[in-house]
Write a structure and sequence with these properties.
Elements: H1 3-21, E1 67-70, E2 73-76, E3 94-98, H2 99-105, H3 110-113, E4 120-121, E5 135-136, E6 139-140, E7 146-148, E8 151-152, E9 168-175, H4 179-182, E10 189-195, E11 203-211, E12 215-225, E13 233-243, E14 254-267, E15 270-283, E16 289-292, E17 296-301, E18 309-326, E19 329-352, E20 358-385, E21 388-416, E22 434-453, E23 456-472, E24 481-496, E25 502-513, E26 528-540, E27 545-563, E28 571-591, E29 594-609, E30 630-639, E31 649-658, E32 661-662, E33 670-671, E34 674-684, E35 695-702, E36 710-713, E37 716-719, E38 724-732
Length: 733
């Protein structure tokens, strides 16, 4: 589209947003937007639900977490700008899942953490505890859209780094392209998790949890200042130990996690935080059930307890450094080394005999390893040029990973479908016969200026990336395929402070994603590219902790892989996808322990240029399968007042509605709508007697009506998670 047409549409979006917000003008606000800062922005603790000292893991700027947090609401997040910009002034859609919300919902993985956020499709692949797999605005974010402390978690093959939710202070979802600050990525957006960090207030927490499927888990989180250091050194130690089964035959859900960290703060201008982690899990090798023709999921589990595990070990070590030369000149550096190893063995059903009494089976065995290092160095400065106030951040980041894979396949004894003799036959592990390797380097230079003139804030972001990739398809026989990509990506956004509480905005942003492989002529695929137009209104009710936002967007991604129409054994980078829709979100903290979050999403994701892998025909204009067109979610909690005869009791619940979608990209069959209900009940024993302060009992239930459901995507169908109940005994001090 010519640049003049793009600028015209951008202007139209801003004018439309301003018109929509015109009727919502308010007189003044209790806090000026430009006065918000990290200092003094702790959580007002909900009764018995947030331990003292657990609420200030934020730092000022890129790599730090949200601040200005009260209950489920947050005023500031650096994810979208790498600066301490209030959310209401950010020219893109941003949602924050705070620690209190993670506690209330007793979140067990990253997909659960963001399940109530707008724009997110977190159940596309049903119940699959192996990966944090989800879509944002119709685009997969699993491999290039997950971040930790502002640094990308590279994922390749089966080595997909996991984030233990108990080790997080918050989760931030930035919707829309983020390449202007972060480089290669998903057009749909990114999810940035903030690690728990030391605080200079003594605190502690221990938990014991038990649930169905023989689930037992212990958590602990302790920290505070180190004695004898004059308040310059603080530590934190967080850990999880779990042993559990799942509803899958022989499927474990075991986990070990420990995260030591310390912060050295020799002065108010300098801080150095050391972050480390060890994580180990044992999960089912597969979560799939055999599919009959016609998009029907049978009760025949594909796995077998005799050969069914996915073991993953990962560790990280790094630091976050910040120094203020002056209040208007700050340097930061975030560094992390990550190592992930996956050992993966699974069985699968290849077919059923005519009378459906036996199933032929095969097995696979993979060993994957991924090591990666990331460094982001940035400089932030604030200055004036006449009447314009600038907040500028610039930096350079570097990321490198090495990935290796070895795998092999074999056969397994038939499964008796009459007796379902899972685990009763020996299965031989196949030999590793194929060996692959890949390495990638990414270097990026970025610069962003947030210029404020009166009530206008113009955000200009630009970045240039160089990506070098080497892939060996078979190390025993093949040679390396090398590719080099370079791209400029950016963002322009305009906010208008209609009042201090109502801010319409519009933005345009671009993204790119390198692609592995070559076409029929042996030429490397060019990177997939995308852009987005977004416009909306953000609103914060003065004098309250109630925020709301509405946004409309139009995303185009091109140069994605499709089957070569002239050579069906190969691919060409000529495909395209278009995602359009709108989102609405409201978050509120009415009183300690009483919160509400609402979200609604309408998505229209279509294959603009694509070839069917089933028919070989063009399916241009078809909807992308498995992604609901409409979704709605709501979660609320209510804490009875201390004067009530039910003092100490907290109740809550939520619903997650997913509208219909197509089961295949050929758009022949639809998935049904699904509504799932969750529930919370908790009791703070200090209401009985002050001597029980810190003791809390909590029960969480997910899919409480045990709705049996499936979702089909690209022609394969997945079972959803059954009802799950987890009870917790908690002591905080």
């Amino acid at each position: 589209m010519p640049s003049r047409r793009r600028l015209a549409r951008l202007s139209a979006l801003l004018l439309a947003s301003t018109a929509l917000a015109g009727t919502a003008r308010a007189q003044g606000a209790s806090v000026q937007l430009d006065q918000l800062s990290v200092e003094g922005t702790g959580i007002a603790p909900a009764l018995g639900n947030v331990a003292t000292g657990q609420d200030s893991a934020a730092t000022s700027g890129g790599g730090g977490g949200p601040s200005g947090v009260t209950g489920y609401t947050a005023r500031i997040s650096p994810t979208a700008t790498k600066t301490n910009t209030p959310l209401i002034e950010t020219p893109q859609s941003v949602s924050v899942v705070t620690r209190e919300q993670l506690n209330d919902r007793n979140v067990q993985d990253l997909a659960q953490a963001i399940a109530y956020a707008p724009g997110v499709s977190s159940s596309v692949f049903g119940f699959d505890p192996r990966y944090d797999a989800f879509y944002i605005r119709g685009f997969s974010a699993t491999y290039n859209g997950i971040f930790r402390d502002g640094l990308r978690l590279n994922a390749v093959g089966l080595t997909i780094p996991r984030s233990e939710p108990y080790g997080l202070e918050a989760v931030t979802i930035l919707r829309g392209p983020a390449s202007g600050l972060y480089g290669l990525g998903s057009p749909g957006g990114i999810v940035d998790s903030t690690s728990k960090r030391p605080v200079f207030v003594p605190f502690g927490e221990v938990q014991f949890q038990a649930g169905n499927y023989d689930r037992f888990q212990g958590n602990f989180d302790i920290g505070g200042p180190v004695e004898g250091t004059d308040g310059t050194l603080a530590y934190r130690l967080t850990g999880v130990k779990r042993q559990s089964n799942t509803y899958l035959p022989g499927g474990d859900d075991d986990r070990s996690f420990i995260a030591p960290s310390f912060t050295w703060r020799p002065s108010s201008d300098t801080s150095f935080t050391f972050l480390s982690e060890y994580y180990e899990s044992r999960l089912p090798g597969t979560s799939f059930f055999y599919n009959d023709p016609g998009f029907k999921v049978t009760n025949f589990y594909s796995g077998d307890p005799a050969f069914n595990h996915y073991k993953q070990q990962q560790y990280r070590i790094g630091y976050a450094f910040e120094h203020k030369f002056s209040p208007d000149l700050i340097v930061r550096q975030n560094v992390r080394y990550y190592d992930v190893n996956a050992d993966y063995e699974y069985a699968y059903i290849a077919g059923l005999n005519a009378d459906r009494t036996r199933a032929s089976r095969g097995v696979g065995y993979y060993r994957d390893a991924l090591s990666q290092i990331s460094v982001d160095t940035q400089l932030e400065s604030r200055f004036d040029t006449g009447p314009i106030r600038h907040t500028m951040v610039g930096g350079i980041d570097y990321a490198h990973y090495d990935y290796t894979r070895a795998f092999g396949f074999g056969s397994a004894p038939d499964l008796n479908l009459v007796t379902l003799n899972y685990g009763q036959q020996a299965i031989t592990r196949p030999a590793l016969t194929t060996f692959q390797a890949q390495a990638q380097d990414q270097v990026g230079l970025y610069l962003q200026d947030q210029a404020r003139l009166g009530r206008f804030i113009l955000t200009l972001t630009g970045r240039h990336d160089w990506v070098f990739q080497s892939t060996v398809a078979d190390r025993t026989t093949g040679t390396a395929q090398n590719s080099t990509d370079r791209a400029f990506s950016g963002r322009v956004g305009l906010n208008y402070l209609l009042t201090d509480a109502v801010v319409p905005y519009a933005s345009y942003a671009t993204t790119f994603t390198p692609q592995v492989g070559v076409d029929a002529a042996g030429n490397p695929f060019k990177a997939a590219t995308g852009d987005q137009l977004e416009g909306g209104v953000k609103y914060a009710i003065p004098g309250t902790n109630i925020t709301a936002a509405i946004a409309g967007f139009d995303i185009n991604q091109s140069s994605i892989l499709r089957q070569d129409p002239t050579n069906t054994a190969n691919q060409v980078a000529t495909g395209a996808v278009r995602s359009r829709g709108y989102e609405m979100e409201a978050t509120a903290n009415f009183a300690p322990g009483t919160n509400l979050t609402l979200s609604y999403t309408h998505l229209d994701v279509r294959l603009a240029r694509q070839t069917s892998l089933v028919t070989g025909e063009a399916i241009d204009g078809n909807r992308l399968s498995g992604i609901p067109g409409d979704s709605f979610s709501a979660f609320t909690t209510y804490q009875f007042a201390p004067s009530s005869f039910l003092a100490g009791l907290q109740i809550g619940g939520g619903l997650r509605y997913a509208g219909t979608s197509f089961a295949d990209d050929e758009n022949t069959v639809r998935n049904p709508t699904v509504t799932l209900w969750d529930a919370l009940i908790a009791y703070d024993f200090s209401a009985l007697d002050p001597k029980y302060k810190g003791f809390r009992a909590q029960v969480n239930a997910f899919n409480i009506f045990d709705r049996s459901y499936t979702n089909c995507q690209a022609g394969f169908c997945y079972r959803g998670a059954p009802a799950t109940v987890i009870g917790s005994l908690i002591y905080r001090w």
